[in-house]
Amino acid sequence: MKILFVKPNMGLVDGRPYHDRGRMEPLTFAVLAGFTPERHQVALCDDRFEPVPYGARWDVVGINVEIYTARRAYEIADRFRAAGAKVILGGTHVSMIPDEAQQHADAIALGDSDAVWAKILDDIEEGKLQPRYPGLPCQGTLTGIRTRWDVFRGKRYLPVALTQFGRGCVNQCEYCATGNLFHGRNAHRPPAEVAAELERDGRTFVFFVDDNLIADVPAAKQLCRELIPLKIRWTAQASLNFASDPELLDLMLRSGCQGLVVGFESRDPGNLRAMNKQVNLGYGSYDEIVERIRAAGLMLWAAFLLGYDHETEQSIRDTADWALSKKFAFSAFNILMPYPATPFYARMKEQGRLLFDGAWWLHDDYRFGHGAFVPKNMNAERLGELGLWARLKHNTAYQIMRRATDRSTNSKDAWSLLTYFAYNPLFRDEMLKKHDMGLGYRGFERTQRERDLIARIFLR
């Protein structure tokens, strides 16, 4: 069979499809390609920068659905189904809200879909496709994963390879889709298998897409030991407690860790308790632990979550100022969003605080970067404005230059400084470009076909 994987775009900017210059390889499809029997032909379309090949004949179309791409994913799915292809939808959003996704698919894959992908293909060939395929529970050891990076050949992505060690997260923060979807469980691949795969394919700069690389600390330590001989550079997402374990921190540095994405979320203990971010509650103002990380020389992408009930306009301003004082390599000031099937969504619904009829990710009026619930101490519009203000303040040319002077981290060596200056302007520009984006294409492809038809008529 001819199989097409599709990575959907988010939506429109100034009436045109958003072109993401900061795009990374969509690892999901490299893993699914590895589980695809060799008798099938596999191709990948990345809707973020290339046209969707509706005109070609495809037997199967697999689409990964995330909450911000759900509307666009459904648009693509509906067109391929109308053309006769079997459309399979998977991804976190599908697992969180399956009834919605089922309306746009011949079948949906729930949970870890790679475990059932070959079964889905066999059922299509045999004419007995089922509407839903539950994946295996996230537990134990993930074995047999073969990542086929060749599906990215000829496509242009950022020069960093993506791979995965573990899935799930042991934390169950109130707002988080991943932690609640996996019910606080984590499973990981054999460390030696991951290292062998990276060595085989010559990957030298790697980003681990794990929600929390150190969810299983002993396993993370063994992974680092396996990576040391490879002499690679790597980054990952990790919970803050990595810096409280001297052995783990040493192994991370020796194995090539250059920096980490860390969810600080809030400096207010009341907010941390409300979001059930227990792992962060023991670090006070964060000052001491941040200095420990800076002393180790690690660059940090600090993530903050704005909008919990203890949040005020002043606390957002204080958070932005504090982040600048720490000279983080990058900072993300994210607006708190009610993701479906999370305890936070349920609480906002019970309290009557959801906006856009609850399904903001499909609503015509929702725009990226804006709030989708009523905060306690300000309105949703003001929350969105303050989030944008924090991002703008952190990313002025002056502040980017000022943060670059941190010789402990951002300019500790030539590689760090080049990386810092390569990505800061890029992420700043993409952040500004996405703000106010409408999700989905909202009839763009129809109107574009009409324009093309009119052009052909007048050019006869």
Would you summarize the structure shown here?
The two termini are 39 Å apart. The chain has 17 helices and 17 strands.
Which secondary structure elements does this structure contain, and how are they paired or packed?
Blueprint: E1 2-7, E2 11-13, E3 16-17, H1 27-34, E4 41-46, E5 60-64, H2 70-82, E6 86-90, H3 92-96, H4 98-102, E7 107-110, H5 114-125, E8 132-134, E9 161-163, E10 166-168, H6 177-181, E11 186-188, H7 191-201, E12 205-208, H8 217-227, E13 233-237, H9 246-254, E14 257-265, H10 269-274, H11 287-296, E15 299-306, H12 313-325, E16 330-335, H13 343-350, H14 380-394, H15 397-404, H16 414-434, E17 438-439, H17 444-458
Parallel strand pairs: 1-4, 1-5, 5-6, 6-7, 7-8, 9-12, 12-13, 13-14, 14-15, 15-16
Antiparallel strand pairs: 2-3, 2-17, 10-11
Helix pairs in contact: 7-8, 8-9, 12-14
What would you note in describing this structure?
With 460 residues, the protein is an alpha/beta fold. It folds into two domains: 2-134, Rossmann fold (3-Layer(aba) Sandwich); 149-431, Alpha-Beta Horseshoe (pyruvate-formate lyase- activating enzyme), CATH 3.80.30.20. It is built from 17 helices and 17 strands. The strands form four sheets. It has a six-stranded parallel beta sheet, with helices on both faces. A hairpin with a 2-residue loop joins strand 2 (11-13) and strand 3 (16-17). The longest helix has 21 residues, at 414-434.
